[in-house]
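ok new one. same drill as before - structure tokens go in, u give me an amino acid for every spot. 164 of them this time. try not to just spam alanines like last time pls lmao
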């Protein structure tokens, strides 16, 4: 019986903290008799400021965990330079560029940037993780570098390497 106020307090605190997001650009209700909404957040890639991503995911108020469903769309919204690309992880695993908690207990939405050198394309993979198991639900979007300053520099480097 004493656990109920503690659980209610934790839920209220979590709801307040999640509601403090300044990167939320959309909020769509899933119905009058549900506490679930689709939230749309925006973020800029921390290394590639010319890329903006929008993530949609379900937020279930008063639940211990949000569903793992999500969508992502990223686009070039500014210059992408050779200097920006110099800091990009080129491994097949890429690097996590965004994280958001999806539950009280260890569930996290992550966005990983992976670079496809052959096509000169940035890929952004959104997925959720749990400490005990992952989720098969994921979403992928790509940002081709074609036409950017980075594209021109990368092609020039490749051609110079072939001439040596």
């Amino acid at each position: 019986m004493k656990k109920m106020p503690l659980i209610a307090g934790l839920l209220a605190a979590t709801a307040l903290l999640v509601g403090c997001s300044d990167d939320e650009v959309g909020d769509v209700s899933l119905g009058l008799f549900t506490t679930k909404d689709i939230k749309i957040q925006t973020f800029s890639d921390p290394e590639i400021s010319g890329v903006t991503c929008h993530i949609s995911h379900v937020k279930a108020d008063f639940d211990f965990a949000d569903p793992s469903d999500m969508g992502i769309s990223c686009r070039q919204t500014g210059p992408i330079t050779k200097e920006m690309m110099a800091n990009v992880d080129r491994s097949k695993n890429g690097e996590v560029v965004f994280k958001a908690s999806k539950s009280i207990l260890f569930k996290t939405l992550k966005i990983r940037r992976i670079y496809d050198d052959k096509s000169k394309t940035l890929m952004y993979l959104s997925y959720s993780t749990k400490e005990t198991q992952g989720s098969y639900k994921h979403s992928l979007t790509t940002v081709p570098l074609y036409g950017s300053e980075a594209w021109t520099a990368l092609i020039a480097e490749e051609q110079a390497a072939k001439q040596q």
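Residues 3-21 have pLDDT under 50 and may be disordered. and btw Helices lie at 3-18, 82-86, 149-163.
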